Amino acid sequence: MRNAIGLMSGTSLDGVDIAWLRTDGEQIESFGPTGYRPYSEEERVLLHKALDAAPQIARLEERPAEVAAAENLITRAHAEAVESFLAANQIDRATVDVVGFHGQTVLHRPHDRLTVQIGEGERLAKALGLPVVYDLRAADVAAGGQGAPLVPVYHRALVRLADCATPACIVNIGGVANITYIDGETLIACDTGPGNALLDDYLMRHIGKAMDRGGAIAAQGEPDSDWIAQALDHPFFDRPAPKSLDRNDFASFAVDGMTLEDGAATLTAFTVASIARIVDQLPNQPASWIVVGGGANNPTLMQMLSERLAPMPVVTGHDLGWQGDAIEAQAFAYLAVRSLKGLPLTYPGTTGVSAPLSGGVLARP
Questions:
Q1: The CATH classification of domain 2-147+327-363, taken from the options 1.10.10.10, 3.40.50.300, 3.30.420.40, 1.10.10.60
Q2: Model pLDDT for residues 32-63, shown as the tens digit of each residue
Q3: Is 342 marked as a binding-site residue?
Q4: Burial of 27 (0-12, 13-18, 19+ CB in 10 A)
Q5: Partner of 208 at 20 to 30 A CA spacing, among 42, 54, 152, 361?
Q6: Is residue 183 a known part of a binding site?
Q7: According to the annotation, is 15 in a ligand binding site?
């Protein structure tokens, strides 16, 4: 068994999640403490500038000025997150076997065999004095896979540990929403559409708020069913799994002619409708739906999803005792250990790669 720390900065651009996990890369022996290092408003502005500049990247190593500045921020913020985490939890650095470092996705174009996660793994390893596994998507994309989602193999470990009714479907709602379908050895995954990103960006533009906390704004509005039906005509939704998205693939989907509340309700309902759309592509009806990620903390979204998927039960990871907000960070701890052991991170059913494939780059301090 290895002691691993996982780090995740997601497409919602809210901050760095950090988690401790003890695992052999197959079974989970124990969970540990979790932590969070939020981005300041100035840091979020810089990260958004990097996202705006990233489409000009044509090669993995390219870094336009805004992206280079953001990469420096990401590396520093993750180092700070780990140092604070070790101190707060009185963890001896010598007991940490590996750090799994996802970095920050700024560009995801698997059809061009290109995915860019900024963050300097070698520099982070030296700053922390710990081995760091990073660049976990690139090998899959280079081999013709989607490079996303990466977390399904960890979802399978969680479902087995919890002894959930199967088929089980885990819905992860971050900036982009994705699902993992688990039924025995069958593992299917894909992005389903926008998660929180459209709503977050909409509220930031209009009222300077980073999110619809508690779903309070959407709860006061009415979804525009015609707008949602038209949005679902996008060809992405008819493509079979596996498939993946860039955070900004739906950025042009505007609801600016609506009231603030109706716009928020419509974007929330669009996320829900795009998740429900995947049901017809699954081999069997899931016996359980388990929601994790930031969306699980939004009661308005959860109510819409429960109504849309009825009579299938919908619960959150919290309901099962999982540390729902830390699952992706835990996953990158788990994936780092799998990478060290050469175990597969991705599969034909999760990314479309032709055969199970390991990945990641090891940086030593």
A1: 3.30.420.40
A2: 999 999 999 999 999 999 999 999 999 989 99
A3: no
A4: exposed
A5: 54
A6: no
A7: yes
